[in-house]
Design goal:
The protein has about 500 residues and is mainly beta. The chain folds into 3 domains: about 1-110, Immunoglobulin-like (Sandwich); about 115-210, Immunoglobulin-like, CATH 2.60.40; about 215-495, TolB, C-terminal domain (Neuraminidase). Strands 9, 11, 12, 14, 15 and 16 form a 6-stranded mixed sheet that branches. Strand 25 (about 305-310) and strand 26 form a beta hairpin. The termini are far apart.
């Protein structure tokens, strides 16, 4: 009876707890590898365990593993586990000491175990935010429980026009938006995908862009090889045009509440107007604005904002602001091109710059409002001539002249200076000399400030490649000190 009891206790100890570590004196070795079934790619960090339990190991970078001389004689099931893959189990037997058993696991992924990303949370701008800048960055947040790589798509809808933009395949959780329409409400939503589960959509959120601040300064920069127009209060700048088209020579009219500019349309230069925020562009000119170097050419409109003048080769045209009533009002007698034109504040006089096909042999001619010749105030000098802006009273005219007299095929200017022509005594004052223009630079595109108390202009090195900057000089300052207004800017307009 005692022997039977002892045998029963031994049997329970041996077989009653299959998970206990076996400790026999005769032991074998298990070797193996783990591969991805479809590609035979080795899988690392796969957990290998046995039942009954012996030793837990993990596959190495080559997918190999071994339990060395640690498995007592007996029958075992061997399990291979890796997160995201179907668990594999195989049976082995160790029948003698120092036996080596080899096993190969071929695992497949189990996407049913993969969890979808969390619902994107829209962080900025907050829902129903108002007075939002028209250049902003959308921000959101989403995580993935399985640390999968996430791809985002952002949907942005203009609630006024119902235009919807999609920004797909984003790998970051931010998106910069530029040049949004002023005073417009937008709706946005984020979609996230881990490439395994169904896409997860965020809730929709709305924000409203601030009203157009209608800044008084307009200027030009280069972007993606094209001219673009911006407006500024000298603290921040906003886009008026984009680099889709090249746009330059901005002129704002406070009465018309429009900004006009030259723009390349179908390979030709035309006169265009737009709202102060750049929306609703309208081509005004019927005939292209042709002549010497489109980037040098300029136009003007009258104070009331209902008519424009613009040049085309040797002709000067007048046209209504809506594009109707275009008519030629002047043609040069010598076939010279008209490059610049400026209308006096009272509308009684027009100043023009004419030059040959290379930009030289320039004249400054004064016409009446109907295009009749009144006088020529500049001619017979070598070198480039430009500028043109009337004082409010019409008794002074700004222009530029390269006093070096240099001329070449690149229209390079070596020492262009701003001059103030006084009609009362028919004299010109070298303003650039008064304001101590730095050597090796040129002053171009001058303009009187709205109160005639300042002159604002562009200065740059005479090497044709340096950055242009805008300066302003107070005419009441006896030292005529130059004050930097804008870096990397040109063709300034101040209204």
């Amino acid at each position: 009876m005692k022997n039977i009891l002892l045998l029963s206790i031994f049997t329970i100890l041996l077989f009653g707890c299959s998970e206990d570590l076996l400790d026999g004196t005769q032991k074998g070795t298990l070797k193996g590898s783990v591969r991805l079934e479809l590609t035979n790619e080795p899988l690392a960090n796969v957990k290998i365990t046995t039942t009954p339990s012996t030793q837990t190991v993990f596959s190495d970078e080559e997918g190999n593993f071994e339990i060395l001389e640690s498995i007592p004689i007996g029958d075992y099931s061997v399990k291979a586990e890796l997160n995201g893959y179907v668990t594999e189990v195989d049976a082995i037997s160790i029948t003698e000491s120092e036996q080596i058993v080899t096993i190969v696991f071929e695992m497949i992924t189990d996407e049913t175990l993969n969890q979808p990303p969390t619902t994107p949370q829209l962080i900025s701008p907050t829902n129903l935010a108002t007075d939002v800048p028209n250049d902003l960055t959308l921000e959101w947040s989403s995580t993935d429980p399985d640390s999968d790589s996430l791809i985002y798509s952002v949907l942005v809808s203009n609630n006024t026009t119902n235009e919807q933009l999609e920004f797909p395949d984003l790998e970051v959780d931010t998106l910069a938006l530029e040049n949004l329409n002023f005073g417009t409400t937008y709706t946005w939503q984020v979609v996230v995908s881990d490439g395994i589960n169904d896409e997860v959509f965020s809730e929709s959120s709305q924000f409203t862009v601030r009203s157009n601040p209608e800044y008084r300064y307009h200027y030009v920069q280069k972007e993606n090889g094209n001219f673009i127009i911006k407006s500024t209060n000298l603290e921040e700048s906003i886009y008026i045009t984009t680099s889709i088209h090249s746009s330059w020579r901005p002129h704002k009219n406070n009465i018309a509440q429009k900004v006009a500019f030259l723009q390349t349309i179908a390979g030709q230069t035309h006169l265009v107007t737009a709202d102060l925020n750049g929306e609703n562009p309208h081509q005004v000119s019927q005939a292209p604005v042709h002549g010497f170097r489109p980037d040098v050419m300029d136009f003007d409109w009258n104070t009331n904002g209902n008519r424009f003048i613009f040049p085309s080769f040797d002709k000067l045209y007048r046209v209504n602001y809506d594009g109707t009533g275009q008519q030629q009002i002047y043609q040069t007698a010598d076939g010279q091109f008209i490059t610049k034109c400026a209308w006096s504040y009272d509308g009684s006089k027009i100043a023009i710059v004419t030059n040959n096909i290379n930009g030289y042999q320039a004249k400054i001619i004064i016409l009446d409002a109907n295009g009749n010749l009144l006088e020529t105030i500049f001619e017979g000098q070598q070198g480039a001539v430009g500028g043109l802006d009337w004082s409010i009273t019409g008794d002074r005219l700004l222009y530029t002249y390269d006093v070096s007299g240099y001329e070449d095929s690149n229209y390079r200017q070596l020492d262009s200076r701003i001059f103030i022509y006084n009609f009362a005594d028919q004299t010109s004052t070298d303003f650039s000399e008064l304001s101590e223009k730095p050597l090796g630079t040129i002053d171009i595109d001058p303009q009187f400030s709205p109160n005639d108390a300042e002159i604002i202009f562009t200065n740059t090195a005479n090497d044709l490649i340096s950055v242009k900057s805008v300066y302003i000089v107070d005419l009441n300052d006896e030292e005529y000190s130059r004050n930097l207004v804008l870096f990397n800017a040109e063709m300034i307009d101040y209204e």
